[in-house]
Design the sequence.
C-alpha cells in the first residue's frame, strides 16, 4: 500500500495544501494579523532554520522518549492483554482497575510519578506509557476474546492445549485489533512524551526535550519558533504513525480484508 | 472404527431436551446420514460424539480400544479455515497441534491437497478461494489426522447445487478405500441418499431417531447413480419419512410416540 503511491493520489492533497497556504497569506494581509498572533508561513520556515539547534536536540530527545515509551507500551500492553484474556478471573478481576487507572487524569498522576521516578526520562516514559497503553490493551483484549466459535470448536476437536489456542488461534486473530490499538497509541505517543517533557524534562542533566523547548519559546514570546516546534512535533508523530502502518501492512496484508488487493 | 451409542440424551438446562435416548450403531465402513427438521439435535449429536459437547446421560463406546475420541475428525458447517494461514498450513494444522514435525506433516498436506484437486493452491490464502475450494481444504484438513471416523456437519449446505453434487461425488471417491466411517448431517434428501449406506431420519422436540432407511445402492456411485430409478425411489422414501416426522413435530409431544410407531411401520422395511 505504501510501497507504490500513485501520483494521482498526491494530486488533490497538494492542491488543497497550496490553497490553504494562499488562504493563510491572504488572511494575514486582509485582516492585518500581527506576527505575534499568526506568523507568515515563510517566517516559520525561517524560524525552523534559525532555531535548528534547539529544535534538533529537543526533537531527538523527544524521539528517544517516544521510542522508549512506545516500546514499553506495546510490549507491556501485549503481555497485559494476553494475561487478561487467559482466564475469566484475570479479566473480571483486573480490567476494572485498569479502567480506573485510565480514568485518573494524567495531570494528577504526573507529580506522583515524578516524586517516585524523579525528573527525567524514567518519568517521561512512564507518563507516555500511561497515556498509550490503554488503547493497545483495550483493543487487543477485545480481539483475543472475540474468537470465532467454530474456530474454538476446531481447536477443541483436535485437543489443542490452552497455550496452543492462545498463540495459534487467539493471538493471530487479534492482530487486526492489536494493530488498530497500535495506530491510536502511535498518535498518542508524542503527546505523552511532550507533556512528560513539560513536567519532568531537563532534570536528568541531559538535553531538554521538545516540550521543554516549547515552554522556553513560549516564555520568550517567540511565536514563529512555537510554530516551528509544532512542525517538528508533527514530523515525529508522522514518523511513528508511519512505522505502525508499515508494521500493520507487514502482518496483515496477505490475509486481512482491510488489505484486499485490487489488481 | 465402530461406534455405539446407547440411550444418549442431552438436556440444555433442566427443561429443554435436545436429544432423547439416541441409539446408534456405526459399522467400520458405514456412511450414515442424519436428516431431520431444524432443531432436532443433529449437530448436537455430532458434537457429543466428537467430544466438544457433554452428553447428559447414556453411553458411547468406540472400538479399537480407543476409549476417548482420538481417531475422530470433524468437518464443520463452514470451512473454518484460519484466514492468516496458507491453504497448505491450514491442512497441516491438526498435525501441528499434535506435535508432528514439519517434514512429515507437509508431506501429508501435499498428498491430501492433490487428492482434493487443490495441489496448485497450496500457497494461496483462504480468501482467495471459492466456497467449494474452501470446503475441499476443510475436508483435506479433517483427513490429515488419518481419522477412522469422520463427522461432517452439513459441510455443503452453503454451496450451490452443482458444486454440492460435484463435492458429493468427490467425497465418495476420496473414501473409495473406506478407511473411515462417516456420520453426515444434512438438510438435503438427495445428498443423504447419494452418499449413505443408511439414512437416519430424526424428529424434533425432543430430538430422536424416528426412521431408519437403508440405502442398498452399490458403491462406487457416480453421477449416473442419480438417474437410477432405485435412487429416485429411495429419495421418495426418505422424503416421505421426513414429511411424517414434520407432522409429528407439530402434533406435540403427547401424540408423537403413537405416530412414531405407525411411521416406522410404514417407512422402515
Sequence:
Amino acid at each position: 500500500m505504501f510501497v507504490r503511491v500513485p501520483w494521482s493520489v498526491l494530486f488533490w492533497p497538494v492542491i488543497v495544501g497550496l490553497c490553504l497556504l494562499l488562504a493563510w497569506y491572504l488572511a494575514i494581509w486582509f485582516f492585518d494579523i500581527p506576527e505575534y498572533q499568526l506568523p507568515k508561513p515563510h517566517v516559520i520556515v525561517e524560524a525552523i532554520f534559525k532555531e535548528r539547534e534547539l529544535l534538533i536536540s529537543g526533537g531527538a530527545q523527544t524521539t528517544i522518549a517516544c521510542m522508549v515509551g512506545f516500546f514499553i507500551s506495546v510490549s507491556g500492553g501485549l503481555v497485559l492483554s494476553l494475561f487478561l484474556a487467559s482466564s475469566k478471573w484475570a479479566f473480571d478481576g483486573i480490567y476494572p482497575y485498569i479502567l480506573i487507572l485510565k480514568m485518573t487524569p494524567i495531570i494528577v498522576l504526573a507529580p506522583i510519578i515524578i516524586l517516585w521516578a524523579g525528573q527525567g526520562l524514567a518519568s517521561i516514559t512512564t507518563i507516555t506509557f500511561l497515556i498509550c497503553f490503554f488503547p493497545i490493551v483495550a483493543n487487543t483484549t477485545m480481539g483475543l476474546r472475540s474468537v470465532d466459535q467454530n474456530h474454538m470448536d476446531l481447536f477443541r476437536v483436535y485437543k489443542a492445549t490452552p497455550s496452543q489456542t492462545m498463540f495459534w488461534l487467539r493471538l493471530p486473530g487479534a492482530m487486526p485489533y492489536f494493530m488498530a490499538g497500535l495506530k491510536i497509541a502511535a498518535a498518542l505517543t508524542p503527546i505523552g512524551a511532550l507533556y512528560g517533557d513539560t513536567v519532568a524534562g531537563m532534570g536528568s542533566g541531559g538535553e531538554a526535550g521538545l516540550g521543554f523547548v516549547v515552554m522556553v519559546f513560549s516564555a520568550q514570546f517567540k511565536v514563529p519558533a512555537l510554530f516551528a516546534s509544532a512542525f517538528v512535533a508533527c514530523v515525529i508523530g508522522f514518523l511513528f504513525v508511519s512505522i505502525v502502518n508499515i508494521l500493520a501492512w507487514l502482518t496483515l496484508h496477505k490475509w486481512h480484508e482491510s488489505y484486499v488487493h485490487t489488481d | 472404527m465402530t461406534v455405539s451409542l446407547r440411550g444418549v440424551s442431552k438436556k440444555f438446562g433442566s427443561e429443554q431436551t435436545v436429544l432423547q435416548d439416541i441409539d446408534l450403531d456405526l459399522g467400520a465402513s458405514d456412511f450414515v446420514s442424519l436428516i431431520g427438521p431444524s432443531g432436532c439435535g443433529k449437530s448436537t449429536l455430532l458434537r457429543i460424539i466428537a467430544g466438544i459437547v457433554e452428553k447428559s446421560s447414556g453411553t458411547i463406546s468406540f472400538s479399537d480400544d480407543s476409549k476417548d475420541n482420538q481417531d475422530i475428525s470433524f468437518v464443520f458447517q463452514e470451512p473454518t479455515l484460519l484466514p492468516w494461514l496458507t491453504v497448505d498450513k491450514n491442512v497441516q494444522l491438526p498435525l501441528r497441534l499434535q506435535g508432528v514435525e514439519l517434514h512429515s506433516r507437509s508431506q501429508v498436506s501435499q498428498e491430501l491437497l492433490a487428492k482434493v484437486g487443490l495441489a496448485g493452491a497450496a500457497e494461496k490464502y483462504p480468501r482467495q478461494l471459492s466456497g467449494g475450494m474452501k470446503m475441499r481444504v476443510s475436508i483435506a484438513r479433517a483427513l490429515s489426522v488419518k481419522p477412522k471416523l469422520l463427522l461432517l456437519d452439513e459441510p455443503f449446505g452453503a454451496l450451490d447445487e452443482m458444486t454440492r453434487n460435484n463435492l458429493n461425488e468427490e467425497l465418495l471417491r476420496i473414501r473409495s478405500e473406506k478407511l473411515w466411517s462417516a456420520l453426515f448431517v444434512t438438510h438435503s434428501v438427495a445428498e443423504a441418499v447419494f452418499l449413505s449406506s443408511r439414512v437416519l431420519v430424526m424428529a424434533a422436540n425432543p430430538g430422536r431417531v424416528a426412521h431408519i432407511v437403508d440405502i442398498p445402492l452399490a458403491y462406487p456411485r457416480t453421477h449416473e447413480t442419480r438417474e437410477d430409478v432405485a435412487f429416485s425411489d429411495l429419495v421418495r422414501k426418505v422424503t416421505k419419512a421426513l414429511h411424517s416426522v414434520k407432522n409429528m413435530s407439530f402434533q406435540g409431544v403427547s401424540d408423537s410416540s403413537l405416530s412414531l410407531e405407525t411411521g416406522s411401520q410404514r417407512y422402515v422395511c
Remarks:
- Chain A has a mean pLDDT of 90.
- The interface with chain B takes residues 148, 150-151, 153-160, 164, 168-169, 172-173, 175, 254-257, 260 of chain A (CB under 8 Å).
- Chain A has ten helices and no strands.
